[in-house]
């Protein structure tokens, strides 16, 4: 049971809206920004929704500095009438000459139908670098190190689980001349104490419906992992909308 709670909380932490993981680019002209580019500096307010969760996404860009805050809530209650799960992510990003670094604090609270509850919190530090393959194709290798703590209440007994994390991934994007974009983001997270790798893939895109408004969609896939008592693959689809200013 403890491994199951750890697995669910870890997946929730590591799957948190990577499309909002943007860093700042120095001396970039706003008219030339593609809003799917994770090295673009801009400010936005948006919403994301899946079958079970809603999320508010905010980002504020100042030159080479980016500040992000994402807040999520489960839009359904369990069979005991308890409130929905909540999640959060705060991030600072900085980039110089294509190389960016970030610091994240993220986590959330999960309620289970059995009445059990767990809270998860993590700190991550990461690097990203941009390679411009063609005028329309860009790739961004990413790597992060982190620490996570899960506090669970199972059958009235409190438990604590901690682990160190290493995540490697690649964000690849195709940007259209009209400002639309498509992307794919595969990543693997190694959990030291659990001695296992968690494989995830996110893919999606955005369509500019006006100069300052986009709509988009993404799909998050997490592969099954028997060590973490995840007996089947998990796929979640999201719809998104953003206003830029």
Q: Could you explain the architecture of this structure?
A:
With 245 residues, the protein is mostly beta strands. 5% of the residues lie in helices and 61% in strands. It contains 1 helix and 13 strands. It has one helix spanning 2-14, and strands spanning 44-49, 53-62, 65-74, 86-96, 99-111, 117-129, 131-132, 137-154, 157-175, 181-191, 196-210, 213-222, 234-244. It has a 12-stranded antiparallel barrel with strand order 1-2-3-4-5-6-8-9-10-11-12-13. The protein starts with a helix and ends with a strand. Mean pLDDT is 86; it is low at 17-30.
Quick recap:
The protein is mainly beta and 245 residues long. 5% of the residues lie in helices and 61% in strands. It contains 1 helix and 13 strands; from the N terminus they run αβββββββββββββ.
Number of helices: 1
Portion in helices: under 10%
| Widest β-sheet, arrangement of strands | 1-2-3-4-5-6-8-9-10-11-12-13
Provide the residue-averaged pLDDT: 86
> How far is the first residue's CA from the last residue's CA?
46 Å
User: How is the quaternary structure best described?
Assistant: single chain
Unreliable sequence segments: 17-30
**Overall morphology:** globular
Please describe the biggest sheet, giving its number of strands, its sense, and whether it closes into a barrel: 12 strands, antiparallel, barrel
How many strand elements? Answer: 13
Strand content: over 45%
**Rg from alpha-carbon coordinates:** 18 Å
The computed structural class is mainly beta
Helix-strand topology string: HEEEEEEEEEEEEE
